[in-house]
Write a structure and sequence with these properties.
Helices cover about 75% and strands about 5% of the residues. It is mainly alpha-helical. Strand 1 and strand 2 form a beta hairpin. Strands 2-1-3 form a three-stranded antiparallel β-sheet. Helix 10 runs antiparallel to helix 11.
């Protein structure tokens, strides 16, 4: 008769170490007895072990920033000579996000069962992608796990920084457009109907712009729920389609690269991520063909994913990286020349790192230039929109004042 496997649960524990210092934390285990036994092996005497309630347990979303911070902390711990499992304990207890604590407890439990670190990470692909797992595996195989974690932490910090730059460049105009729409809708629904009642008693023909704005206001008042509901549903549906359809992703990524002002910045950021990822993986000892499997997805653009697949297939059949990259027509001449020099000199990772540094600086400069350019442009657009509505509604008053003055 087969015995059903006991499902692991999260236990909250309190205890004292050999010096009598109070400690607390949480652990993933099949039962309380195993938690106490595991703590004894770590030199901790458990005073309280309690299963965490799933009904009232705090939940949280694990962000890329959390994984980046964890990677940096693990690199520091292991560089300082702290044992692996103890490093997980220290980092887990220090995590402010309960979801991160649970994730690290699960990873630690897998390692305690005999799995390697990269195998434990591979069970959580949502938080540790293929690139992360491959680099950790390479570090374990070469016996330089602490160096790889440090390199990985630096890589994730740089990628996070460049993503933040792009988001900040796109967020400001998007936020202004949303606010402008809300303000315009409020004027259409609440302000202009009041003017309409005032103009009803004039007994005179209203100017064309005023009539147009009033008709737009009537439409907003009659169909505001359809406008807001339809717009919200359309945005939600589009976002879901973008996430799930490769064809839509390709079209949108192609469109993003062709946007005026923003397109060149997005392209530079994509190239910076692509070269930074390949440089990090190659420096960690991951074979080039295997490294290219993870590079395309890290670039964050479907066109570069397709280009990377083409590069990988050509490199696998004997082509040089430079020739394969040149055939995609996705990389500027400077990137190709630096890659060629890196291949010839045997310092490909160093050259790709220099390319990434260059394009990251280019993105920084471009974002600053866009910020200084976009502010007056947005002021002009908002002034024209809101000012146009105000002038259209005051035209009849100006006209009436001119008639009275005569």
């Amino acid at each position: 008769m087969a015995v059903a496997a006991t499902k692991d649960a999260t236990y909250i524990w309190e205890g004292r170490d050999k010096k009598g210092k109070k400690l607390s934390g949480q652990m993933l285990a099949p039962g309380e007895a195993l938690v106490s036994a595991q703590l004894r092996r770590q030199g901790i005497t458990a005073t309280k072990v309690k299963k965490q309630s799933t009904l009232f347990a705090k939940t949280g979303k694990i962000k890329e920033k959390d994984i980046t911070l964890f990677t940096r902390q693990m690199a520091v711990m292991m560089k300082a000579g702290v044992p692996l499992l103890q490093s997980f304990d220290i980092v887990g207890r220090g995590a402010a996000n309960p979801a991160v604590q649970r994730l690290l407890a699960e990873v630690k439990a897998d390692i305690e069962k005999g799995n390697s670190m990269h195998q434990a990470f591979a069970k959580h692909p949502k938080h540790f992608d293929k690139l992360f797992v491959n680099l950790v595996e390479a570090g374990e195989a070469a016996g330089i796990l602490e160096d790889v974690l440090e390199r990985l932490a630096t890589y994730k910090e740089k990628i996070l920084a460049i993503k933040g730059k792009i988001k900040s460049a796109l967020f400001y105009p998007a936020a202004v457009i949303v606010v402008a729409f809300i303000v315009t809708a409020a004027i259409m629904i609440f302000v202009i109907p009041a003017f309409k009642e005032l103009f009803t008693g004039f007994g005179a023909d209203l100017p064309g712009p005023t009539m147009l704005v009033m008709k737009m206001s009537d439409y907003f008042v009659a169909n505001w729920y359809l406008i807001f509901g339809g717009l919200g549903a359309a945005i939600y549906g589009f976002v879901q389609l973008w996430k799930r359809s490769k064809k839509v992703q390709r079209v949108m990524d192609k469109l993003m690269l062709r946007l005026p002002i923003f397109g060149p910045v997005i392209e530079k950021a994509t190239i910076a991520r692509w070269t930074r990822t390949l440089s990090t993986m190659f420096a960690a000892g991951v074979p080039l063909v295997e490294a290219l499997e993870s590079v395309g997805g890290a670039a964050g653009n479907q066109l570069y994913v397709e280009a990377t697949d083409k590069i990988r297939s050509e490199v696998a059949t004997g082509s040089s990286l430079t020739v394969a990259m040149q055939g995609t027509n996705r990389f500027p001449n400077m990137v190709l020349q630096m890659t060629a020099i890196g291949e010839e000199s045997g310092a490909l990772d160093s050259m790709l790192g220099k390319v990434a540094d260059f394009y990251e600086r280019e993105v920084d400069d471009a974002v600053e230039a866009i910020s200084s350019l976009i502010e007056p442009l947005i002021m002009v657009v908002l002034g024209t929109l809101i000012g146009g509505l105000v002038i259209a509604m005051y035209l009849p008053i100006f006209k009436m004042g001119a008639v009275v003055g005569e």
